[in-house]
């Protein structure tokens, strides 16, 4: 059976995608999300009743975690599942008034628009890689909030050592779509001059140190 047919059948079997939506999703190239969601929902719905599930984190890697409204240090030896900190509930109500950063409406809208823009650009770059137009790509699907939220807490002069799946931080600082594309395509406008693999962005002007493939080199050392 062709992979696309199999995927369509799998997606249709879930109660979360009506056939029409599934077709639309596949057409838009949203395949990875559709699959991710299928995996996530099927696991969670087996473990938790629906009312509980709705107040639980809903992303891969945290299916058994709980929300917390308390900032705390977590000791890994405890063996506990790291809770997911949140400020708002699923209806947008702030749970602890003292944790509300009280951002302006325009600031929040700007962050949200950039998250959507970043995600849209990624779908195109991911497809470009699948079509063999660029050699490599790694998506940041579902992690956009951590990029734009963390970057918002920093000053422009703060130097960032990011990991490869934190590319939205650059957009938050003003890196343009053209700059992302030029880097991934290693064209003449690439500010790295084609010397890096795709997604290994960097920008001296934006105080963003070029991404390095070896993991953990982004941790402060000293
Ligand atoms: C020092 C080092 N060892 C191994 C690798 C190979 N490697 C690339 S990505 C990866 C997995 C990273 O997983 P995680 O930190 O959970 O990030 P994710 O890609 O899942 O977001 C590994 C082992 C590497 N890049 N650097």
From TrEMBL:
Catalyses which reaction(s): N(6)-[(R)-lipoyl]-L-lysyl-[protein] + 3-methyl-2-oxobutanoate + H(+) = N(6)-[(R)-S(8)-2-methylpropanoyldihydrolipoyl]-L-lysyl-[protein] + CO2
InterPro entries with a match to the protein in the record: Alpha-ketoacid_DH_E1_comp, DH_E1, THDP-binding
Transport as UniProt keyword: no
Transmembrane portions of the chain: none
Class of the enzyme per the UniProt entry, highest EC level: oxidoreductase
Cofactor(s) the protein requires to work: thiamine diphosphate
A Pfam family it matches: E1_dh
Highest taxon listed in the record's lineage: Eukaryota
UniProt domain Dehydrogenase E1 component: residue ranges: 112-221
Keywords: Oxidoreductase, Thiamine pyrophosphate, Transit peptide
E.C. numbers: 1.2.4.4
Recorded family membership: Belongs to the BCKDHA family.
PANTHER family named in the record: 2-OXOISOVALERATE DEHYDROGENASE SUBUNIT ALPHA, MITOCHONDRIAL
Role of this protein: The branched-chain alpha-keto dehydrogenase complex catalyzes the overall conversion of alpha-keto acids to acyl-CoA and CO(2). It contains multiple copies of three enzymatic components: branched-chain alpha-keto acid decarboxylase (E1), lipoamide acyltransferase (E2) and lipoamide dehydrogenase (E3).
Protein name: 2-oxoisovalerate dehydrogenase subunit alpha
Species for this entry: Porites lobata
Top-level taxonomy: Eukaryota, Metazoa, Cnidaria, Anthozoa, Hexacorallia
């Amino acid at each position: 059976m062709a992979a696309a047919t199999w995927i369509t059948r799998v997606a249709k079997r879930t109660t979360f995608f009506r056939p029409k939506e599934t077709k639309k999703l596949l057409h838009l190239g949203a395949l990875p999300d559709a699959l991710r969601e299928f995996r996530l929902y099927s696991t969670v719905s087996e473990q938790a009743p629906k009312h509980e599930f709705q107040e639980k984190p809903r992303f891969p890697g945290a299916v058994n975690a709980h929300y917390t409204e308390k900032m705390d240090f977590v000791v890994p030896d405890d063996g506990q599942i790291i809770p997911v900190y949140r400020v708002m509930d699923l209806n947008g109500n702030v749970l602890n008034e003292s944790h509300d950063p009280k951002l302006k409406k325009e600031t929040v809208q700007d962050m949200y628009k950039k998250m959507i823009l970043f995600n849209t650009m990624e779908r195109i770059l991911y497809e470009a890689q699948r079509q063999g137009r660029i050699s490599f790509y790694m998506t940041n699907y579902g992690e956009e909030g951590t990029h734009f939220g963390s970057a918002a807490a920093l000053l422009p002069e703060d130097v960032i050592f990011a990991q490869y799946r934190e590319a939205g931080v650059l957009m938050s600082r003003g890196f343009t779509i053209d700059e992302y594309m030029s880097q991934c395509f290693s064209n003449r406008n690439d500010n790295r001059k084609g010397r890096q693999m795709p997604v290994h962005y960097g920008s001296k002007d934006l105080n963003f140190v070029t991404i390095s493939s070896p993991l953990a080199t982004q941790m402060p050392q000293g």
